[in-house]
Specification:
By secondary structure, the chain is mainly α. It has one domain. 62% of the residues lie in helices and 1% in strands. The chain contains twelve helices and two strands. It has a two-stranded parallel sheet with strand order 1-2. Helix 5 packs across helix 11 and helix 6 packs antiparallel against helix 12.
C-alpha cells in the first residue's frame, strides 16, 4: 500500500517530529477553507440604498413642493450597520413620512401667510370679477329696453339658481364630521339640514342680511351691499380658523375648507349682481349721437348710471362683523400679525366660531333662495306693468 492510500494519523504525526509534521501541514494547506460572509459589503449596500432613496425623495420634494428648503435627516453609520434587510424598508419609510410632514407644514405656513397678507392689503368684497363702471354704448332701440332688461334679470336668476344648486349638491354629497379634522373631498363640518336644532340661536344673528320674499322688485344696489357683508364674514371666519389650523394641525381643516368654498360662492354671486348692474347701466346709457353733441362743450358730464353701488370700507365691515358671538375682528387681527411673523397668543378652541360659521352659511343659502324667488316674479311682470302704464297714458291722451 502506498503512502497516499493510507489514512493519515494526525495524533501520531503530532507526537513524532520531522517528516510527520511536514506531511500533516501540507495536507491541511491543500484543503479548501470556508470563507467568512462579506458582512461589510452588505452593510455598505444598505447604506447606499438608503442614500439613494433619500436623494430621490429630496429631488421630488424640491421639484413638486416649490423648493421649500427642507433638509434631509443625517444617517449615522451605527444605524445603517445594525439594520438588516427587513428593517431597511421600515427605516427608509420613516424619513419619508418625516419629510412629507415637514414639507406639508412649510407649504401650509406659506399658504396661510399668502391668504392673510392678501386680505390685509385688498378688500375681498371689492371688484370681485374685475368689471368697471362702463360709459357709452352703441345706438339702441328704446322700445326693446324692457325685453333686454328682462333678459338681464333672467340671466341673474339662472346664475343664482346654479350657485344655489352647487352649494346644496355639495352639502348632500358630503358627510358631517368634527371641525378639527383635516380637509377631505367627501366631508364637511357645517350641517344646516336640521334647522329646528338652532331655532333658539337665530335671535343672535338677525344682523345678517335677509330679503322679504313678498317683495315685487329686487333692488340690485341693496343686494350688492348685502353680498359684500357675506363675503367679508366668510373671509374673516376662514382666516381666523386658518390661524387655529396652523397652531394645531399644520394643515387645512375641514371647517376652513368649507368656509373657503362658501367665500368663493358668495364672491361669485357678488360678481353676478355687479355684472347685472353694469349691463343695466349700459342699457340706459345715452346714445352715440347725443354724446357727440356734448363733445364741443367745455364741461362734459358723464351720464349717471341707473343703479349705483358703493364698496363698504373696512371699518364699516368690521363694525358689522363685531356682532358675531365670537370676537371675530380681534381674532382676525391676531391672525394677520401671526402671518407677518409677530408674536401673538395661540388661538383658543371656541365653539362660538363654529356656530357663527354655521349661521352665516344658513343665512346665505336662505338669501340666495329669496333672490331667485323675487327675480322669478319680477321678470315675469316687468314688461306687463310697463305695457299697462303705456296703455293708460294713451287713453288719457285720447280723452
Amino acid at each position: 500500500m502506498t503512502t497516499a492510500a493510507r489514512p493519515l494519523d494526525v495524533s501520531r504525526s503530532r507526537s513524532s517530529g520531522g517528516s510527520g509534521n511536514k506531511t500533516a501541514n501540507t495536507t491541511t494547506s491543500t484543503e479548501p477553507q470556508p470563507q467568512p460572509q462579506p458582512s461589510v459589503d452588505r452593510r455598505r449596500l444598505n447604506r447606499i440604498w438608503l442614500l439613494v432613496i433619500l436623494a430621490f425623495t429630496m429631488s421630488q420634494l424640491t421639484s413638486g413642493g416649490g423648493g421649500c428648503g427642507v433638509s434631509a435627516a443625517p444617517i449615522t453609520e451605527s444605524n445603517a450597520t445594525n439594520s438588516s434587510s427587513n428593517s431597511s424598508s421600515s427605516s427608509s419609510s420613516n424619513p419619508l413620512k418625516h419629510l412629507q410632514k415637514r414639507s406639508q407644514a412649510v407649504n401650509f405656513r406659506m399658504y396661510f401667510q399668502q391668504k392673510l397678507n392678501a386680505s390685509s392689503v385688498h378688500r375681498d368684497w371689492e371688484n370681485t370679477c374685475g368689471h368697471k363702471p362702463t360709459g357709452l354704448n352703441e345706438t339702441h332701440n328704446k322700445a326693446k329696453r324692457c325685453k333686454k332688461r328682462q333678459m338681464i334679470l333672467q340671466k341673474l336668476q339662472s346664475q343664482t339658481g346654479r350657485e344655489l344648486k352647487s352649494v346644496q349638491g355639495e352639502d348632500k354629497a358630503r358627510t358631517t364630521t368634527n371641525s378639527d379634522h383635516m380637509a377631505g373631498v367627501r366631508i364637511k363640518a357645517l350641517d344646516i339640514s336640521n334647522k329646528h336644532k338652532w331655532v333658539l340661536h337665530k335671535v343672535n344673528y338677525k344682523f345678517l342680511p335677509r330679503l322679504n320674499i313678498s317683495s315685487q322688485q329686487l333692488n340690485l344696489r341693496h343686494v350688492h351691499r348685502d353680498l359684500q357683508i357675506y363675503v367679508g364674514a366668510f373671509t374673516y371666519l376662514r382666516n381666523v380658523n386658518l390661524h387655529w389650523d396652523l397652531a394645531n394641525l399644520q394643515a387645512k381643516s375641514v371647517l376652513s375648507d368649507e368656509l373657503d368654498r362658501m367665500r368663493k360662492s358668495a364672491r361669485d354671486m357678488l360678481c353676478s349682481v355687479e355684472e347685472a348692474i353694469n349691463l343695466t347701466n349700459l342699457l340706459y346709457a345715452p346714445n352715440r349721437q347725443r354724446a357727440q353733441k356734448q363733445l364741443g362743450q367745455k364741461k362734459r358730464r358723464q351720464a349717471q348710471p341707473v343703479v349705483t353701488y358703493k364698496i363698504l370700507p373696512r371699518h364699516l365691515m368690521e363694525k358689522r362683523l363685531q356682532q358675531f358671538k365670537s370676537p371675530l375682528v380681534q381674532l382676525h387681527q391676531q391672525a394677520t400679525l401671526a402671518a407677518r411673523g409677530e408674536d401673538v397668543p395661540p388661538p383658543q378652541d371656541t365653539n362660538d366660531l363654529e356656530k357663527d360659521a354655521l349661521f352665516a352659511k344658513l343665512k346665505f343659502v336662505q338669501y340666495m333662495k329669496s333672490v331667485r324667488k323675487i327675480l322669478s316674479s319680477q321678470r315675469k311682470n316687468l314688461c306687463k306693468v310697463r305695457t299697462l302704464k303705456m296703455d293708460q297714458k294713451q287713453k288719457l291722451s285720447q280723452n
